[in-house]
Amino acid sequence: MLEPGTDSVRTRNLARILGQVHLEGARSRAALTLATGLNRSTIADLVAELCTAGLVTETAPDPSRRVGRPSPIVTADRRVVAVAVNPEVDAVTIAAVALDQSIATRLRIERTELITPGETATLVADTIANWRETALADHHIVGIGVAVPGLVRARDGLVRTAPHLEWHDAPIRELVADATGLPTAVDNDATLGAVAEHLYGAARGLDHVVYLNGGASGIGGGLIVHGMPVRGVSGYAGEFGQNRPGIAAATDQQAPDGVLEDEVSRSRLLRAVGLTSADDPTLAAVLSTSDDPSVAAETDRQRRILATALANAVNVLNPRAIVLGGFLAMLAEGAADQLTELVRAQSMPANAEDVDIRAAVLADDRLLIGAAEAAFAALLADPLSQMPARPHPAEGAR
């Protein structure tokens, strides 16, 4: 008979092992022993249990390593995936993100009309049904994460408002879960982007971070304080795009009485280069190769206004880094020093002396990885409760 609490202790230890390979990548059993403080035989038993559940795989150690006892390598199984969804005003992106953050498959569906919450749920269900027969035929789908450009109520995933999508009090979590039969998590896109960049990207290892994401629907933000995401009492924290920046030069103002995302916007950059629609890589390429003075003038104007907003964040939050994603990263591309100087010129010197402005390094994957992270949360907390135990063939010597 198990001692009281044995099951919960084992669950916590399984979660520690799975969390290590999820966050850190492939790890040897020896490294897992060192990281967790558990003994080698316990690590071997836990890894075997995770292998049987289909959550990790083990491979033989590098044969060139001849010093000491060989230690098998434990890796998150790429066949365990979460489906990430990012509805936007110009497209819907759906991807299957594996437990090791790799993208198993991805689909971007261009839109000329705004998608409704119901249409989103149907599109996700149809896509998953197709993938189960094709790209994900031998995969296990844990759940779905939806990154929404709007205010998402933390307790129930209700989208209170996504103004650019024209969603109001939309029960998107319930709609998607009902349509797919899969557990669904919903959060603000920039909040999820901040989590992804903090865990795996430009802010990895930093405890105080401001993240701003620029997308087709405007500018959102996320905060990491003492290593933890800050969501606010209802989950609405980080709406930097709704701030009203002071604009020193009257000629810089293009949207009288507008907020930050009215002045610093993707649509204005698209118009400047003569495009009506483009994904981020295309827009970034056009901006970087343009020699049109009007394009340079618009990027400089947006950069000046953005710097004021960032200086306000520096003065209030004193972050170690500011990470810019989406089209905001394009404003920093090739001009990071200029943007940093503009921010420092408007910040309290002590607050700004340690701040570093960085572009998001996860690029187009940032929101998808963040959404997948939300979908993986229950699995990472209690691995075996989320997976049907099944025989799992060894991929190498143990």
Q: Please identify the structural class as seen in this structure.
A: alpha/beta
CATH topology of the largest domain: Nucleotidyltransferase, domain 5
| Low-pLDDT ranges | 391-398
Portion in strands: 15-25%
Integer tally of domains: 3
CATH H-level superfamily title of the largest domain: ATPase, nucleotide binding domain
Query: Ends: how far apart?
Result: 29 Å
Please provide a brief summary of the model:
This protein has 398 residues and is an alpha/beta fold. Helix content is 40%, strand content 22%.
Explain the layout of strands and helices:
Elements: H1 6-24, E1 27-28, H2 29-36, H3 40-52, E2 56-59, E3 73-76, E4 80-87, E5 91-98, E6 103-110, H4 117-133, E7 140-148, E8 151-152, E9 159-162, E10 167-170, H5 172-180, E11 184-188, H6 189-200, E12 209-215, E13 218-225, E14 228-230, H7 260-263, H8 266-272, H9 280-289, H10 293-317, E15 321-326, H11 327-332, H12 336-345, H13 349-352, E16 356-359, H14 366-381
Parallel strand pairs: 4-7, 7-11, 12-15, 15-16
Antiparallel strand pairs: 1-3, 2-3, 4-5, 5-6, 8-9, 9-10, 12-13, 13-14
Helix pairs in contact: 1-3, 2-3, 4-5, 6-14, 10-12
3D structure, described in words:
The protein is of the alpha/beta class and 398 residues long. It folds into 3 domains: 71 residues, Arc Repressor Mutant, subunit A (Orthogonal Bundle), CATH 1.10.10.10; 132 residues, Nucleotidyltransferase, domain 5 (2-Layer Sandwich); 160 residues, 2-Layer Sandwich (Nucleotidyltransferase, domain 5), CATH 3.30.420. It is 40% helix and 22% strand. The chain contains 14 helices and 16 strands. The strands form 4 sheets. It has a 5-stranded mixed β-sheet with strand order 6-5-4-7-11, with helices on both faces. A 5-stranded mixed β-sheet has the order 14-13-12-15-16, sandwiched between helices. Strands 1-3-2 form a 3-stranded antiparallel β-sheet. Strand 4 and strand 5 form a beta hairpin. Helix 2 packs across helix 3, helix 4 packs parallel to helix 5 and helix 6 crosses helix 14. The protein is globular and about 70 Å long.
